[in-house]
């Protein structure tokens, strides 16, 4: 692992100066590496996401993400501490200065794990699933009140501290500010976002962006927490959703629901989230 991380470090060319020490890999995405480090200024571990700026389009996407995360501050959203340039340089409030950089670092709150890793161990107790769903909906309510759509809710983007059972929404790389005059066409290709948590509104109409797309994903995630199974995994259900008329009767037929140790109230939460 150490050799692999060292190789990734060399490839991505991390340059944060001497402030951040004890770097450890957390994940590798299409635009770079996410890692944790100890901030020597406060002696706390943080998570750092590097965004590589290779062309005007990547700069545009980075500017959009930074604009969004700077306007969000909530208990159920991963807190962003600062945005840094190469060598750990401080960036001014004028984010337009990114056009002169080749990379930017987002320093944020470190979380123990994510929901995807937790679910690899199997379904959750209903009381834990409901607690996480409550926190997810609480965070979503705040995000939507800030006129923002996350657009990429999935277990891997929900971060958890298992000791106190705190859930926080993270990774706003595909988030957008709700604006009827803005064209969202082309930003959610199949290569970027799994279809398993995508609303039929998007499968049928790629520009149909409302709060409902996040609520649909939340319902799918809650069902997965209760059953340990992805609600719409595989091409069959994706095709079913993509070609559906207005009939959701097949929702009631999934064996995973009937075999889950969940109450009728939890089932209703899933149902109404999907129909939001």
UniProtKB/TrEMBL annotation:
Q: Which UniProt keywords apply?
A: ATP-binding, Cell cycle, Cell junction, Kinase, Nucleotide-binding, Phosphoprotein, Serine/threonine-protein kinase, Transferase
Annotated EC: 2.7.11.24
PROSITE patterns per the UniProt record, alphabetical: PROTEIN_KINASE_ATP, PROTEIN_KINASE_DOM, PROTEIN_KINASE_ST
Q: Which SMART domains does this chain map to?
A: S_TKc
Q: What class of enzyme is it?
A: transferase
In what residue span(s) does the Protein kinase domain sit?
A: 20-276
**Which residues are recorded as binding ATP?**
50
What is an annotated GO biological process for this record, any one? Answer: regulation of early endosome to late endosome transport
**What GO molecular functions are on record for this protein?**
ATP binding; MAP kinase activity
* SUPFAM superfamilies attached to this UniProt entry: Protein kinase-like (PK-like) (SSF56112)
Q: Does the keyword DNA repair apply?
A: no
Q: What is its main location?
A: other
Q: Which GO terms describe its cellular component?
A: caveola; early endosome; focal adhesion; Golgi apparatus; late endosome; nucleoplasm
The entry's family comment says:
Belongs to the protein kinase superfamily. CMGC Ser/Thr protein kinase family. MAP kinase subfamily.
Name this polypeptide is given: mitogen-activated protein kinase
What organism is listed for this UniProt entry? Ictidomys tridecemlineatus (Thirteen-lined ground squirrel)
């Amino acid at each position: 692992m150490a050799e692999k991380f060292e190789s990734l470090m060399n490839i991505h060319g991390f340059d944060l100066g001497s402030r951040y020490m004890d770097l450890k890999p957390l994940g590798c995405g299409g635009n770079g590496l996410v890692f944790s480090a100890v901030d020597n200024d406060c002696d706390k571990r943080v998570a750092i996401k590097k965004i590589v700026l290779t062309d005007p389009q990547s700069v545009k996407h980075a500017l959009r993400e930074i604009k969004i995360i700077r306007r969000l501050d909530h208990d159920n959203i991963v807190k962003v501490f600062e945005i840094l340039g190469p060598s750990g340089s401080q960036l001014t409030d004028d984010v337009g200065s990114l056009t002169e950089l080749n990379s930017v670092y987002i320093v944020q709150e470190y979380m123990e794990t994510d929901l995807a890793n937790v679910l690899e161990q199997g379904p959750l107790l209903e009381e834990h699933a409901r607690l996480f769903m409550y926190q997810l909906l609480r965070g979503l309510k705040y995000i939507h009140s800030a006129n923002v759509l996350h657009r990429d809710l999935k277990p891997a983007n929900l971060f958890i501290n298992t000791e106190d059972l705190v859930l926080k929404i993270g990774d706003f790389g595909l988030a957008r500010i709700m604006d009827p005059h803005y064209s969202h066409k082309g930003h959610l290709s199949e290569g970027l976002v799994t279809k398993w948590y995508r609303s039929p509104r998007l499968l049928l109409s790629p520009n149909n962006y409302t709060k409902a797309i996040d609520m649909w994903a939340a319902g799918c995630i809650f069902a997965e927490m209760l059953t340990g199974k992805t609600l719409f995994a595989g091409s069959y259900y994706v095709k079913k959703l993509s070609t559906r008329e207005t009939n959701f009767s097949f929702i009631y037929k999934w064996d995973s629901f009937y075999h889950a140790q969940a109450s009728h109230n939890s089932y209703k939460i899933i149902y109404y989230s999907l129909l939001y």
